[in-house]
Amino acid sequence: MDNIKRDVVGAWAQIHQHLEKKLPGHAIHAWFDPIVPTGFQNTSFVLEVPNQFFLEWIESHYKDDIINAIKNTYSEKVDYKFLVTKQKNEKTVENTQQASFEDAKPKRFNNLNLKYTFDNFIVGSNNEFAKTASESVSNNPGEQNFNPLIIYGGVGLGKTHLMHAIGNNALNHNSDLNIVNITSEQFTLDFVNSLRKNKTIEFAQNYRSADILLIDDIQFFRGKEQTQEQFFHTFNVLHQGGKQIVLTADKFPGEMKGLQTRLLSRFQSGLSVDVQPPNFEVRVAILLEKAEQNGLELDYSIIEFIARHIKNNVRELEGTIIRLLAKSSLLNVEINNQLVTEVVKERVGGRIGNEVSIENIVKKVSEISQVKEVDIVGKSRKMEIAEARQVSMYLCRDIMGTSLNNIGLFFGGRDHTTVMHALKTIKEKKSNDVRMGRMITSIRKELGFSFL
Ligand code: ADP
Ligand code: MG
Question: Which ligand 1 atom sits closest to the C-alpha of 127?
Answer without folding.
Answer: 23
